Structures are given as structure tokens and as C-alpha cells.
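1st attempt posting a full record on here, be nice pls
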Amino acid sequence: MPMNDKEITFAQVVIFGKDPQGYGVGVELCNFDRTPYAIMSLWLPKVEFPSQRQSLFNTFEEVFKYIPENHRHVKFRGCISWFTHRVYEMKRKAGMYADGRTTSFHYLEHKPGVAFCLAVDATSRKTTIIEEL
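the predicted structure (as C-alpha cells):
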């Protein structure tokens, strides 16, 4: 069955790992027309998530909770190197939470602005906030 544009979610993701206590992760979920419908400012303590990779896998779990069921494809975008050289691992891990949706990963040369601000915010507050718009 062909997919139309309205069945796509764009997930902009940034991991801010400069704090020794944990990772701040910013996520902006957008509809096909790039209108945001949810933002996430996630704080992931290194005690529970010792590596950036583990924090990314936890982010997949959180992201899929907020993607509408009728969105059949999720395009992850960010300046995360794993989106280029570990694509199969990313697809496998995201697929654990995707509930039949397809995924793709796109490396960006620049940090997505809103997602970067959300990651820095999570790091400064050391708490998680998820807001549906």
C-alpha cells in the first residue's frame, strides 16, 4: 500500500552530552507539513543510561508513544553520527518500539534549532518535560 505524505512524522533529535551527570535530549515531532505537534525535553541520568547510545535507544521508546497510529513512517533527523554509519542498528532498535511503522535516519550537518534548545533546557533543569501541542 503506497504511503501518502500525511502519514509521515519528522522527528528532529539532538543529544547534548556535555554534562557529567547525564544527557539532555531534545525532540521535536512534526507533521508532514513540518508543523510541530509534540516537543520533548528529556533528562537521562548517566546512572541509568551510561552511554549516549543507550540514551538514544530510550529516546526511541519515548518518541513512539507520541506518534499517531495513522503515521506509518518516521523520519529521524539530527546531527547524530549513528544516523549515518549505524543505520541498521538504529532501524533495529527503533523498530522494537515502532509497532509496524517504517523508519529512516537522516544525518544533518547542523543541529536542529528547536531540538537543540530542548536538549540544553533538559540539561540545565535536569528534569524531563513532554508537551503535546
